[in-house]
Structure formats: C-alpha cells, structure tokens
C-alpha cells in the first residue's frame, strides 16, 4: 500500500462509515484521498462546500473536519437510504445537524438551484457521465480562488493506456484535458486513492 494511504489514519467513526459503504457495495475515497480533501478544505478556510455523491459519509467527514467550525457541507445524492446512514454518521462524528445540508436528488437537477459564486470548495464523486456537467456547474458556483476536486481521474489505471477507449475512460480524459486547457482553472492531478483532479478557479 502506498505511504500516502498508510500515513492517513482513520478513527472508529470513519472506519464504521467505510465498512457500511463496503456492505452496500459503494466505492468510497481512500484514507489518503480523504486526507487531501481535509487539507484542501483547511487550506482554503472553507465555509461553504458542495459534495456531489454523499455515499455513507466517508468523504463528508473528511471535508467537515477540514472546514471552518461554522462551515456548512451541502451534500447531494440520489440514494435517500445512503443519505439516511450518512446523516447518522455525521452526528456520531460530532457534527451538529446544522453543519450539513443533505439534498436528495440528481446532481444535475440540484446544482442549477445553488447560488452563483457562493462556494469555497466543490467535491465531485459522481458517475463519470456527469463529470462534464458537474465541472461546468462548479465554475459558476465557486468563488474566485475556490477549489474543484474530481475523484476517480486515474480511470482505474486506464487513463494513460491509449488502447482504453471505454466511455468512462474517454469521458475522464476529456474532462481532465478541458480543465487543463481552460484559462479558468489552475489544475493539478494528485495521485492519492483513485486519483484526484484539483483545480483552483482563477
């Protein structure tokens, strides 16, 4: 296991959230990737954060722990049952109910209702089919200097394989390339977990 993964430690609350995700067959971010989320939220003194893909609350806990004490995490997921678990996990982790705004629905339906330029950080952990739409929305939702983080950009190790032409890999390649070539973003790929694309809005 890479040192970045063993360096990041998880307490019993995170371990429980992770095991619940495993039982449901849900992928969740690795401890190393979680520690990057926490770091970037803390570095940006994040008060308003959007998470696309609640799961059982693993990434949400990492984000909340990096955010300001008065910060609010808006987390979106289509699966109401997963969010019910996450809500309980957030409370067990010591976060008051007012620290989270849990919205059930498709991200592409919810994001247009969120306010322009109101957010410090946006974490996209959605289906790859929604990557392009989510990153476009992030450009509108983030304040200047705000951070976009997209999970899964290694495409399961296929990102550098020219022979990999499946839809998911092609979509990820297009998203990564578009952000790199855009004058709106200052990006970098962080190799923790499934690969994180981080980009600061100019």
Question: Could you characterize what this model shows?
Answer:
- This is Methyltransferase.
- Keywords: Methyltransferase, S-adenosyl-L-methionine, Transferase.
- It comes from Actinoplanes awajinensis subsp. mycoplanecinus.
- The chain is of the alpha/beta class.
- The chain has one domain: 3-Layer(aba) Sandwich (Rossmann fold).
- Helix content is 41%, strand content 22%.
- Strands 3-2-1-4-5-7-6 form a 7-stranded mixed β-sheet, with helices on both faces.
- The mean pLDDT is 96.
Structural class determined from secondary elements: alpha/beta
Topology as a string of helices (H) and strands (E)? HHHEHEHEHEHEHEE
List the quaternary state of the chains. single chain
Strand residue percentage: 15-25%
Task: State the total count of DSSP E strands.
Answer: 7
What does the overall shape look like?
globular
Gyration radius, in Å: 16 Å
CATH homolog superfamily: Vaccinia Virus protein VP39
Number of domains: 1
Mean pLDDT level = 96
- Give the biggest sheet: 7 strands, mixed
Give the helix tally: 8
> Which class in CATH terms?
Alpha Beta
How much helix is in the residues?
40-55%
In the CATH hierarchy, the architecture is: 3-Layer(aba) Sandwich
Could you say what the CATH topology is called?
Answer: Rossmann fold
Q: Uncertain regions: pLDDT < 50 for 5+ in a row?
A: none
Give the N-terminus to C-terminus distance in angstroms: 35 Å
Strand order of the largest sheet: 3-2-1-4-5-7-6
GO molecular function, one term: O-methyltransferase activity
Keywords: Methyltransferase, S-adenosyl-L-methionine, Transferase
Protein name: Methyltransferase
Organism: Actinoplanes awajinensis subsp. mycoplanecinus
């Amino acid at each position: 296991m890479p040192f970045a993964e063993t360096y990041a430690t998880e307490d019993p609350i995170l371990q429980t959230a992770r095991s619940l995700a495993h039982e449901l067959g849900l992928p969740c971010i690795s401890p190393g990737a979680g520690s990057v989320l926490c770091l970037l939220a803390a570095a940006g003194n994040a008060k308003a954060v959007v998470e696309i893909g609640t799961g059982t609350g693993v990434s949400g806990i990492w984000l909340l722990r990096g955010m300001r004490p008065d910060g609010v995490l808006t987390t979106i997921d289509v699966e109401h049952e997963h969010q019910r678990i996450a809500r309980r996990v957030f409370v067990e982790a010591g976060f008051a109910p007012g620290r989270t705004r849990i919205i059930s629905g498709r991200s592409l339906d919810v994001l247009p209702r969120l306010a322009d330029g109101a957010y410090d950080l946006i974490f996209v952990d959605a289906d790859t089919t929604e990557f392009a739409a989510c990153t476009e929305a992030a450009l509108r939702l983030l304040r200047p200097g705000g951070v976009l983080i997209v999970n899964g950009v290694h495409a399961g190790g296929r990102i550098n394989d020219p022979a990999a032409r499946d839809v998911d890999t092609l979509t990820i390649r297009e998203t990564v390339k578009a952000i790199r070539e855009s004058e709106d973003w200052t990006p970098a790929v962080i190799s923790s977990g499934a690969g994180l694309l981080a980009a600061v809005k100019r």
